[in-house]
Design brief:
This protein has a 6-stranded mixed beta barrel with strand order 5-6-11-7-10-9. A 5-stranded antiparallel beta sheet has the order 2-1-12-13-3, covered by helices on one side. By secondary structure, the chain is mainly beta.
């Protein structure tokens, strides 16, 4: 999320009331006076905002990325070694960027224990070989209301009523999509061997696919 600030104005992301706006310093102090907001460890630089999440006891920096529609994404690193065994390993084109589709291996962890500020949470975490960014997306961001004082490098949050996705909405064995007028398998669970990436589906239960 790239944002630009007037030194006398702060950014408010109010997902309780579905509004994003600038507030002045007096309004900031009024919001902080009720003691519901808490100060996060953060870093604001080059018009970008980074906050820190503790995952399985280790702290990681994450960029706020409202353009990413998911929860939490991390680039693959063999040193991660998460203990959580609630995971699904996928291969193929899971993400679409502005210019292309990604291709790689993805590990989706369910119910990952996370500490964010003083909040103990469970969330879905995607570890990706195809996405190199370490970001939190809008699905996670909107579970909090935010006050961002960019000039003083201070970020405040409070939990709201929006849910945090912690499990996969659906289990994936294979996923197909139309590519150049052909129905092709573009994602598969790593353990599945009956079909391979790029296989064309020409019929389903004897019914030809057109």
């Amino acid at each position: 999320m790239d944002v630009f600030f007037n030194e006398d104005l702060m950014l408010q992301l109010d997902f309780t009331n579905n509004k994003v706006c600038n507030i002045n310093r007096q309004q900031l102090h009024e919001y902080l006076a009720d003691n519901e907001y808490q100060l996060l460890k953060s870093k604001c630089k080059a018009n970008q905002i980074f906050v820190y999440l503790n995952i399985e006891g280790k702290e990681y920096p994450f960029k706020l990325d409202t353009g990413y529609t998911g929860n939490i994404i991390m680039p693959y690193d063999e040193k991660l070694n998460f203990k959580n065994d609630k995971k699904l390993e996928l291969e193929g084109s899971l993400f679409q960027t502005i210019s292309s589709h990604t291709s790689g291996s993805e590990i989706v962890y369910e119910k990952m224990p996370i500490t964010f500020g003083s909040y103990n949470l469970e969330a879905k975490v995607n570890v990706s070989t195809s996405i190199k960014a370490q970001n939190i997306g809008i699905d996670f961001i909107k579970a909090f209301d935010w006050l961002i004082d960019y000039n003083n490098n201070k970020v405040y949050i409070k939990r709201n009523q929006n849910p945090i996705e912690s499990v996969l909405n659906r289990k994936i064995s294979y996923y197909a999509k139309v590519n150049q007028e052909k129905l092709l398998i573009v994602i598969k669970e790593k353990s599945q061997t009956q079909y391979q990436l790029g296989d064309q589906i020409i019929a389903v239960k004897g019914q030809k696919v057109t």
